[in-house]
Amino acid sequence: MRSKKATTLKITRILGSDSTGKDTFGYLNFAHVNPEIADDDLMSIGTKLGNLQSLPVDAIGRVDSCQLMQEH
To answer: How many angstroms separate the Cα of 49 from the Cα of each of 12, 33, 45, 67?
Structure first.
């Protein structure tokens, strides 16, 4: 049984590159998202928030978590 469901919107931004030319990343995490939100809706919100960033967006993600409990 699941309880305490939580969803976070995660926007991955490219901060620059390291000495070898690989991208370095920073993350914006928006907690307290309704766990019932559809993936398409969350993607739309993430895209709109990403467009407000001065840094390029690499990815938009969804992180779901919950606590597992045994039924009695």
So the answer is: 11, 14, 6, 29
Helix (H), strand (E), coil (C) string for 23-49: EEEEEEEEEEECCCCCHHHHHHHHHHH
Give residue for tokens 């039924």.
71
Q: What is the DSSP letter of 56?
A: P
Residue 31 to residue 52: CA distance in whole angstroms: 18
Count each helix (H run) and each strand (E run) in the chain, helices first: 1, 3
Q: Taking the model in full, what pTM does it have?
A: 0.84
For the chain, give the number of residues. Answer: 72
Contact assessment for residue 7 and residue 30, using Cβ atoms and an 8 Å cutoff: no
Instruction: Tell me which DSSP letter residue 18 carries.
Output: -
Per-residue pLDDT tens digits for 20-40: 999 999 999 999 999 999 999
